[in-house]
Amino acid sequence: MSLEWMTRWREGRIGFHLNDVHPALERYWPQLEVPPETKVLVPLCGKSLDMRWLAQHGYPVLGIELVPEAIEQFLAQRQGEVSRYRQAGFDISRQSSIELWCGDFFHLHIQQAAEIGAFYDRASLIALPPAGRQRYAFHLAQLVPPGAKGLLISLTHEKSSAGPPFSVPAQEIQEVFSPNFRLTHLEDSASDAMGRAESVWALERRGPRD
Ligand SMILES: C[S@@+](CC[C@H](N)C(=O)[O-])C[C@H]1O[C@@H](n2cnc3c(N)ncnc32)[C@H](O)[C@@H]1O
Protein backbone atom coordinates (compact mmCIF):
# COMPACT_ATOMS: atom_id res chain seq x y z
CA MET A 1 0.00 0.00 0.00
CA SER A 2 2.84 2.45 0.72
CA LEU A 3 4.15 2.08 -2.86
CA GLU A 4 0.69 2.95 -4.12
CA TRP A 5 0.65 6.19 -2.10
CA MET A 6 4.16 7.10 -3.26
CA THR A 7 3.04 6.60 -6.88
CA ARG A 8 -0.16 8.59 -6.39
CA TRP A 9 1.71 11.57 -5.02
CA ARG A 10 4.41 11.36 -7.72
CA GLU A 11 1.75 11.26 -10.45
CA GLY A 12 -0.40 13.96 -8.84
CA ARG A 13 -3.38 11.61 -8.36
CA ILE A 14 -4.48 13.34 -5.17
CA GLY A 15 -8.15 14.02 -5.78
CA PHE A 16 -8.72 13.85 -2.00
CA HIS A 17 -6.80 17.10 -1.47
CA LEU A 18 -8.93 20.20 -0.88
CA ASN A 19 -7.81 23.68 -1.81
CA ASP A 20 -9.76 25.11 1.10
CA VAL A 21 -10.11 24.38 4.78
CA HIS A 22 -12.72 21.67 5.34
CA PRO A 23 -15.98 23.38 6.36
CA ALA A 24 -16.68 20.75 9.02
CA LEU A 25 -13.43 21.64 10.77
CA GLU A 26 -14.46 25.29 10.96
CA ARG A 27 -18.00 24.38 11.99
CA TYR A 28 -17.37 21.72 14.62
CA TRP A 29 -13.86 22.14 16.04
CA PRO A 30 -14.90 25.10 18.27
CA GLN A 31 -17.66 22.91 19.75
CA LEU A 32 -15.08 20.44 21.06
CA GLU A 33 -13.72 23.18 23.35
CA VAL A 34 -10.15 21.94 23.07
CA PRO A 35 -8.01 24.39 25.07
CA PRO A 36 -5.71 26.52 22.87
CA GLU A 37 -2.06 25.40 22.94
CA THR A 38 -3.17 21.74 22.96
CA LYS A 39 -1.07 19.84 20.43
CA VAL A 40 -3.24 18.23 17.74
CA LEU A 41 -2.25 14.97 16.08
CA VAL A 42 -3.20 14.86 12.39
CA PRO A 43 -2.66 11.28 11.18
CA LEU A 44 -2.19 10.60 7.44
CA CYS A 45 -2.13 14.36 6.96
CA GLY A 46 -1.23 14.73 3.28
CA LYS A 47 -0.74 18.45 2.59
CA SER A 48 -4.03 19.43 4.17
CA LEU A 49 -4.69 23.13 4.72
CA ASP A 50 -6.66 22.09 7.77
CA MET A 51 -3.33 21.96 9.60
CA ARG A 52 -2.78 25.66 8.84
CA TRP A 53 -6.25 26.45 10.18
CA LEU A 54 -5.53 24.61 13.43
CA ALA A 55 -2.17 26.37 13.81
CA GLN A 56 -3.76 29.77 13.12
CA HIS A 57 -6.30 29.07 15.84
CA GLY A 58 -3.61 28.45 18.43
CA TYR A 59 -3.15 24.69 18.20
CA PRO A 60 0.35 23.32 17.56
CA VAL A 61 0.10 20.48 15.03
CA LEU A 62 1.87 17.15 14.68
CA GLY A 63 1.05 15.82 11.23
CA ILE A 64 2.23 12.42 10.12
CA GLU A 65 2.51 11.45 6.49
CA LEU A 66 4.17 8.59 4.65
CA VAL A 67 5.11 10.38 1.44
CA PRO A 68 7.90 13.00 1.43
CA GLU A 69 6.45 14.79 -1.65
CA ALA A 70 3.29 15.57 0.30
CA ILE A 71 5.30 17.19 3.07
CA GLU A 72 7.46 19.17 0.67
CA GLN A 73 4.37 20.43 -1.16
CA PHE A 74 2.81 21.49 2.14
CA LEU A 75 5.91 23.40 3.20
CA ALA A 76 6.17 25.09 -0.21
CA GLN A 77 2.65 26.58 0.17
CA ARG A 78 4.06 29.24 2.51
CA GLN A 79 7.24 31.17 2.96
CA GLY A 80 8.71 30.67 6.37
CA GLU A 81 11.72 29.06 7.88
CA VAL A 82 11.73 25.27 7.96
CA SER A 83 13.86 23.42 10.47
CA ARG A 84 14.59 19.77 9.84
CA TYR A 85 15.77 17.06 12.16
CA ARG A 86 15.55 13.33 12.64
CA GLN A 87 14.00 11.67 15.66
CA ALA A 88 12.99 8.09 16.43
CA GLY A 89 13.28 7.02 12.79
CA PHE A 90 11.20 9.92 11.42
CA ASP A 91 12.39 12.84 9.30
CA ILE A 92 10.70 15.85 10.89
CA SER A 93 10.16 19.24 9.26
CA ARG A 94 8.94 22.12 11.35
CA GLN A 95 7.40 25.33 10.00
CA SER A 96 6.15 27.72 12.70
CA SER A 97 3.99 25.61 15.03
CA ILE A 98 3.45 22.75 12.56
CA GLU A 99 5.64 19.65 12.78
CA LEU A 100 5.41 17.17 9.96
CA TRP A 101 6.70 13.69 10.68
CA CYS A 102 7.53 11.71 7.56
CA GLY A 103 6.92 8.00 8.03
CA ASP A 104 4.37 5.34 8.83
CA PHE A 105 1.69 6.33 11.32
CA PHE A 106 1.78 2.81 12.74
CA HIS A 107 5.43 3.35 13.73
CA LEU A 108 4.62 6.37 15.89
CA HIS A 109 4.93 5.35 19.53
CA ILE A 110 3.41 6.71 22.68
CA GLN A 111 6.81 8.08 23.81
CA GLN A 112 6.90 10.39 20.79
CA ALA A 113 3.25 11.35 21.25
CA ALA A 114 3.61 12.47 24.85
CA GLU A 115 2.50 16.06 24.23
CA ILE A 116 -0.54 15.23 22.09
CA GLY A 117 -3.87 16.25 23.60
CA ALA A 118 -6.31 16.21 20.67
CA PHE A 119 -6.61 14.84 17.13
CA TYR A 120 -8.06 15.66 13.75
CA ASP A 121 -8.69 13.00 11.15
CA ARG A 122 -10.00 13.66 7.69
CA ALA A 123 -9.87 10.79 5.25
CA SER A 124 -7.51 8.48 7.14
CA LEU A 125 -9.89 5.55 7.44
CA ILE A 126 -10.77 5.67 3.77
CA ALA A 127 -7.07 5.36 2.90
CA LEU A 128 -6.80 2.03 4.69
CA PRO A 129 -8.12 -1.47 3.89
CA PRO A 130 -10.52 -3.05 6.43
CA ALA A 131 -7.91 -4.68 8.69
CA GLY A 132 -5.89 -1.46 8.61
CA ARG A 133 -8.90 0.52 9.84
CA GLN A 134 -9.28 -1.64 12.92
CA ARG A 135 -5.57 -1.33 13.60
CA TYR A 136 -5.72 2.42 13.00
CA ALA A 137 -8.44 2.97 15.59
CA PHE A 138 -6.54 0.89 18.15
CA HIS A 139 -3.25 2.65 17.43
CA LEU A 140 -4.84 6.10 17.71
CA ALA A 141 -6.23 5.06 21.09
CA GLN A 142 -2.70 4.15 22.25
CA LEU A 143 -1.38 7.60 21.26
CA VAL A 144 -3.90 9.95 22.84
CA PRO A 145 -4.60 10.36 26.56
CA PRO A 146 -7.97 9.72 28.24
CA GLY A 147 -10.25 12.69 27.67
CA ALA A 148 -8.54 13.69 24.40
CA LYS A 149 -11.05 14.98 21.89
CA GLY A 150 -10.98 14.87 18.14
CA LEU A 151 -12.94 15.32 14.95
CA LEU A 152 -13.25 12.55 12.39
CA ILE A 153 -14.41 13.05 8.81
CA SER A 154 -14.98 9.95 6.72
CA LEU A 155 -16.64 8.93 3.48
CA THR A 156 -19.05 6.43 1.99
CA HIS A 157 -19.53 5.72 -1.69
CA GLU A 158 -21.45 3.33 -3.86
CA LYS A 159 -18.57 1.06 -4.96
CA SER A 160 -18.33 -0.21 -1.43
CA SER A 161 -15.55 -2.78 -1.91
CA ALA A 162 -13.23 -0.63 -4.03
CA GLY A 163 -10.56 1.72 -2.75
CA PRO A 164 -8.79 3.78 -1.81
CA PRO A 165 -10.88 5.72 -1.13
CA PHE A 166 -12.61 2.88 0.70
CA SER A 167 -16.22 3.35 1.67
CA VAL A 168 -16.50 3.33 5.47
CA PRO A 169 -20.06 3.10 6.77
CA ALA A 170 -21.21 4.53 10.08
CA GLN A 171 -21.61 1.08 11.60
CA GLU A 172 -17.94 0.29 10.99
CA ILE A 173 -16.82 3.61 12.45
CA GLN A 174 -18.76 2.78 15.59
CA GLU A 175 -17.39 -0.77 15.73
CA VAL A 176 -13.73 0.15 15.41
CA PHE A 177 -13.74 3.23 17.65
CA SER A 178 -16.32 2.54 20.35
CA PRO A 179 -14.12 0.18 22.43
CA ASN A 180 -11.83 3.13 23.21
CA PHE A 181 -13.72 6.29 22.27
CA ARG A 182 -17.08 7.91 22.94
CA LEU A 183 -18.56 8.87 19.58
CA THR A 184 -21.07 11.55 18.63
CA HIS A 185 -22.38 11.61 15.09
CA LEU A 186 -22.49 15.25 13.98
CA GLU A 187 -23.45 15.31 10.33
CA ASP A 188 -23.86 13.44 7.06
CA SER A 189 -23.42 15.41 3.86
CA ALA A 190 -25.67 14.85 0.87
CA SER A 191 -24.25 12.47 -1.76
CA ASP A 192 -22.40 14.17 -4.60
CA ALA A 193 -22.69 13.30 -8.30
CA MET A 194 -20.33 10.34 -7.76
CA GLY A 195 -22.44 8.97 -4.91
CA ARG A 196 -19.94 10.07 -2.26
CA ALA A 197 -21.14 11.36 1.12
CA GLU A 198 -19.07 12.47 4.09
CA SER A 199 -19.83 11.77 7.72
CA VAL A 200 -18.54 13.85 10.60
CA TRP A 201 -17.99 12.58 14.15
CA ALA A 202 -16.76 13.95 17.46
CA LEU A 203 -14.67 11.47 19.42
CA GLU A 204 -13.43 11.45 22.98
CA ARG A 205 -10.87 8.98 24.28
CA ARG A 206 -12.37 6.95 27.09
CA GLY A 207 -10.61 6.66 30.43
CA PRO A 208 -9.88 3.34 32.15
CA ARG A 209 -13.24 3.31 33.99
CA ASP A 210 -15.43 4.67 31.15
C1 LIG B 1 -6.83 10.05 1.57
S1 LIG B 1 -5.36 10.94 1.89
C2 LIG B 1 -5.88 12.13 3.11
C3 LIG B 1 -4.90 13.23 3.33
C4 LIG B 1 -5.38 14.37 4.26
N1 LIG B 1 -5.85 13.88 5.53
C5 LIG B 1 -6.41 15.24 3.59
O1 LIG B 1 -7.51 15.41 4.16
O2 LIG B 1 -6.13 15.77 2.52
C6 LIG B 1 -4.44 9.77 2.86
C7 LIG B 1 -2.97 10.17 3.09
O3 LIG B 1 -2.37 9.23 3.98
C8 LIG B 1 -1.06 8.91 3.56
N2 LIG B 1 -0.78 7.59 4.14
C9 LIG B 1 -1.26 6.39 3.73
N3 LIG B 1 -0.87 5.42 4.58
C10 LIG B 1 -0.13 6.02 5.55
C11 LIG B 1 0.53 5.56 6.74
N4 LIG B 1 0.51 4.26 7.06
N5 LIG B 1 1.18 6.45 7.50
C12 LIG B 1 1.20 7.77 7.18
N6 LIG B 1 0.59 8.28 6.09
C13 LIG B 1 -0.07 7.42 5.28
C14 LIG B 1 -1.12 8.99 2.04
O4 LIG B 1 0.12 9.24 1.44
C15 LIG B 1 -2.10 10.15 1.83
O5 LIG B 1 -1.42 11.39 1.75
Automatic annotation (TrEMBL):
Coarse class of the protein's main subcellular location: cytoplasm
Enzyme Commission no: 2.1.1.67
Substrates-to-products reaction catalysed: S-adenosyl-L-methionine + a thiopurine = S-adenosyl-L-homocysteine + a thiopurine S-methylether
Keyword Zinc: no
Keywords: Cytoplasm, Methyltransferase, S-adenosyl-L-methionine, Transferase
One Pfam family, short name: TPMT
Gene Ontology MF term list: thiopurine S-methyltransferase activity
Residues reported in the UniProt entry to bind S-adenosyl-L-methionine: W9, L44, E65, R122
One GO BP: methylation
SUPFAM superfamilies: S-adenosyl-L-methionine-dependent methyltransferases
GO cellular component: cytoplasm
Record's subcellular location: Cytoplasm
Family, as annotated: Belongs to the class I-like SAM-binding methyltransferase superfamily. TPMT family.
The protein's name: Thiopurine S-methyltransferase
Organism: Vreelandella zhuhanensis
